[in-house]
Amino acid sequence: MPELPEVETIRQLLTPQIVNRRITNVIIHRDEIVGHPTLKTFVREIKGKSILTLNRKGKYLLIGLNRGWLLIIHLRLSGHLRVVKNEPMLKYERLRLKLNNCQSLVFIEPRVLGKVYLVKEDNLPPVLSGLKEMGLEPIDPRFTAKYLTERLKGKSAKIKTLLLDQRICAGAGNIYSDEALFGAGIKPVRRANSLTKREISNLTKTLRQVLNAGIKYLGTTMRDERYLLPDGATGRFQERLKVFNRENLPCSKCGNKIQRVKIGNRSSYFCPVCQK
DNA sequence: CTTGTGTCCTGTAGGC
DNA sequence: TGCCTACAGGACACAA
Q1: Residue A211: which of A173, A158, A160, A239 has the closest Cα?
Q2: Of A3, A64, A154, A168, which residue is 20 to 30 A from A11 by alpha carbon distance?
């Protein structure tokens, strides 16, 4: 489940491998993986383009090409990227960009929910409205208690749900939002409008802390997920998780059992004692 | 405008 | 062993 730290790790490791390379060819194994434009246009336009920059916004990876084109990749739930020699097709390989150094950038996506988009950077299609409407990332200095208070104002939804809303809190997913709520001592089912000033202030800090820690430890690789680094290695943040995926295991602070609840059809983990 | 639910997709885990 | 169902989750469509 690539969230901000996973995508940022991929961005950092991929940069020296693909920047300044030219895309000599593209192979699409699954048509659904191309979100924009049409297959034909995608193939025609991407061939011969050079990779100039590698940026990230929220969970989107932004690959800057020449002539103002942008190759955007969203890994969704199970996608990852590998840089390999021009070797045979990998398992779950959906798209391959051949580069001018006998290597390829391969998009692997078992569940086929991830997408690539080829756009002009000043002209985003409606299918990328999520990118345009994205809120601030917690690691952005502008993501202050004032900002979060403003974005949560008048909302009665559960705080966990709102942290997953990319228009409010860009880059957080199920793992890091649970970890941040634990750090701030807030139950995930709490209604946003019940949070105190101090709780919101704490939450801005713990969101920033867990995302930065996730980056530092190269992301989280769960046993049943497929987040891998571009060289095939795993992240290490899973060893430092306090609540996520720890149902019935002891809380690191108080020793009580971590509980799991369903919020909006997905699991949330929390300590019933440490989180109010 | 808001909040909540269903859907996309496929591999895996668990029940019987 | 094998069939069946539930589940995982990011983003978005849609209903209330």
Answers
A1: A173
A2: A168
Protein-proximal nucleotides of chain B (any atom < 7 Å from a CB): 2-13
For the stretch A144-172, pLDDT in tens is 999 999 999 999 999 999 999 999 999 99
pLDDT above 90 (res A81): yes
* Nearest residue: Cα versus C1' of B5: A264
Place of tokens 């916004």: A57
Q: Whole-number Å distance, CA A189 to C1' C11?
A: 21
- At A157 the pLDDT is 94
Q: Kindly state the average pLDDT of the residues A191-201.
A: 96
Question: In strand C, which positions have an atom below 7 A from any protein CB?
Answer: 7-12
How many whole angstroms separate alpha carbon A228 and alpha carbon A226? 6
Straight-line distance from CA A79 to C1' C7, in Å? 18
